[in-house]
Design a protein that fits this description.
It is built from 14 helices and 27 strands. With 559 residues, the protein is of the alpha/beta class. Strand 2, helix 4 and strand 3 form a beta-alpha-beta unit.
Length: 559
């Protein structure tokens, strides 16, 4: 019995398990993930992917990947390819790959079936007229004057729509349901619209395109889907989903709605993400600040961490906001286990150890990963000149400052105690070099005379250091919910001006010279980092995936 079954099941899995046990659908489960290829996948999609593919995996079922490609204007092959890559990267493999556009012929035949049964009609109303006739929550609808066309006339007009005899918007095919339903979706909804637009797969074969509602349930049905899992905003569409399948008398999957993922300080809709890319607010879809799967990948997230995050947040029926700290928790947990430790000084300050012989150096042994004994050790060169982090030195430091200041001693990790006796400044008064001495007797990290130091800092040998650019990221939006802005304000106004800070003079320990794009490390005391694809032969570029602790979340908690 797997572990997921031993803990309480979420409500979707509970439905699936009950159905399997009662022998519904022959005891089989078949799900699908149905993205529209109009953008890159984001972390919200990951939740849906983990749920759909996860259920299939867990209960010996199948999961299809289906491109919901019925909007020719917005869809592109570039997006299709990125989606395939992202689903695979997350660790899932589809049982079948389909496109809703594969069903255009079948959907057309189904529409004819509805027309013949008197359940659909060709309507000449304009978009404005349709809207006006539809009415509202407290306003009755009025039937279209074209609603009573004969079956023959409807069949003829629908054929002519298909043959391209009308202009865009001139006619629609609508279901004949109930213009007084309290559910607006049932007030004679559109099934087909005329769009003389090329489709990324069917080219100019079609000039009528099915609507989402007319496509989705039937696609599920054709594929033999048993549980059609979608987000809550489709709950109100479910009566229509059911109506179409009943009217057509075909296999009827069960639609189940769950709460979508909303992340704090993030926008998630593809339309908004596209706006960020096109407006140059970020560098690309895979900018490491983007909540896209490719953005997280480039930032250094592992697929395991994203799956773990989806697992932890669970599946519910109530919309809420998830704190980014949750995601950070998952990635830290994983990287803590797998990421080799290295030293990198982000903002270097030179230290000269005056009692260390000039022209000499030695190697110190450093532990690669204290969480993983098999990771072993490595050698780090040590010499008279070192870099330490500028923030590890402070003039006139308060008592609680446990790092370096004039007159105070500190431990260099894996090396010796050093004591600072002078800070050299440039003309502007900025400290540019520290004059120190070291105590060779403290090689093991302890002083033989028992004296203590409170701080341990990281360092890199000047002579052996490798240059790097390190990119530090913060949340892209200052507002907790950037979408929740007054009507006359632009949601982009809350973009965090400090979401990217570039450290362009960072110093790496020499073993990092061999690092390859995508390699992940813990830079001691600074967080987890990975090599960015912008790296060149001359200069490595690192992204900070996540800090070691959530200083930011703590700050928030204090408020
Ligand atoms: P967006 O509004 O971000 O553009 P969408 O819902 O239009 O997203 P689709 O490509 O249609 O995107 O979504 C594919 C599947 O992913 C759908 O089943 C959808 O419900 C689900 N999904 C989309 N966003 C989220 C989210 N934030 N949380 C959970 N599931 C999501
Ligand atoms: Mg959509």
């Amino acid at each position: 019995m797997n572990t997921a079954e031993s803990k309480t099941l979420d409500f979707v899995r509970q439905i699936v398990v009950d159905d399997i046990e009662s022998g519904k659908n022959g005891g089989q489960v078949h799900t699908r993930f149905p993205p529209e290829p109009n953008g890159y996948l984001h972390i919200g999609h990951a939740k849906s992917i983990c749920l759909n593919f996860g259920i299939a995996k867990q209960y010996g079922g199948k999961c299809n990947l289906r491109f919901d490609d019925t909007n020719p204007e917005k869809e592109e092959t570039e997006f299709v390819e990125s989606i395939l890559e992202d689903v695979r990267w997350l660790g899932f493999e589809w049982d079948n790959l389909y496109y809703a556009s594969d069903y255009f012929d079948q959907l057309y035949e189904m529409a004819i079936k509805l027309i013949k049964a008197g359940n659909a009609f060709v309507c000449d109303q304009t978009t404005e007229e349709v809207r006006e006739y539809r009415g509202g929550w407290n306003k009755e609808g009025r039937v279209s004057p074209f609603r009573d066309r004969s079956v023959e006339e409807n069949l003829e007009l629908f054929k002519r729509m298909k043959n391209g005899e009308f202009r865009d918007g001139e006619k629609t095919l609508r279901a004949k349901i109930d213009m007084n339903s309290s559910n607006m979706n049932l007030r004679d909804p559109a099934m087909y619209r005329i769009r003389h637009t090329e489709h990324h797969r069917t080219g100019d074969q079609w000039c009528i395109y099915p609507t989402y509602d007319w496509t989705h349930g039937q696609s599920d049905s054709i594929e033999g889907i048993t549980h059609s899992i979608c987000t809550l905003e489709f709950e109100i569409h479910r009566p229509l989903y059911d109506w179409y399948l009943e009217a057509l008398e075909i296999h009827h999957p069960q639609q189940i709605e769950f709460a979508r993922l909303n992340l704090m300080n993030t926008v998630m809709s593809k339309r908004k993400l596209l706006e960020l890319v096109q407006g140059g607010y970020v560098s690309a879809w895979d900018d490491p600040r983007m909540p896209t799967i490719c953005g997280f990948r480039r930032r250094g997230f592992t697929p395991e961490s994203i799956r773990d995050f989806c697992d932890r947040i669970g599946v519910t029926k109530t919309n809420s906001m998830t704190d980014l700290a949750q995601l950070n928790l998952s990635i830290r947990d994983h990287l803590n286990k797998i990421a080799p430790r290295r030293m990198c000084v982000l903002d270097p300050l030179k230290v000269v150890i005056e009692n260390y012989p000039e022209g000499e150096s030695e190697v110190r042994s450093a532990i690669n990963n204290p969480e993983d004994e098999t990771a072993g050790t490595r050698e780090m060169p040590f010499g008279r000149e070192l870099y330490i982090e500028r923030s590890d030195f402070m003039e006139d430091a308060p008592k609680k400052f446990f790092r370096l200041t004039v007159g105070r001693e500190v431990r260099l990790k894996y090396a010796f105690f050093i004591k600072c006796h002078e800070a050299i400044k440039d003309v502007s008064g900025e400290v540019i070099e520290l004059r120190c001495t070291y105590d060779r007797e403290t090689a093991g990290g302890k002083a033989p005379d028992g004296r203590k130091v409170k701080g341990t800092i990281h360092w890199v040998s000047v002579e052996h250091a490798v240059n790097a650019e390190v990119r530090l990221y913060d949340v892209l939006f200052e507002a907790e919910d950037p979408s929740d802005v007054a009507e006359d304000t632009d949601w982009k106004e809350t973009i965090n001006p400090n979401s990217l800070i570039i450290m362009n003079n960072s110093k790496l320990e020499p073993s990092l010279a061999e690092a390859k794009v995508g390699d992940r490390f813990q830079f001691e005391r600074n967080g987890y980092f990975c090599v960015d694809r912008d790296s060149t032969a001359d200069k490595l570029v690192f992204n900070r995936t996540v800090t070691l602790k959530d200083a930011w979340a703590k700050e928030k908690a204090r408020k």
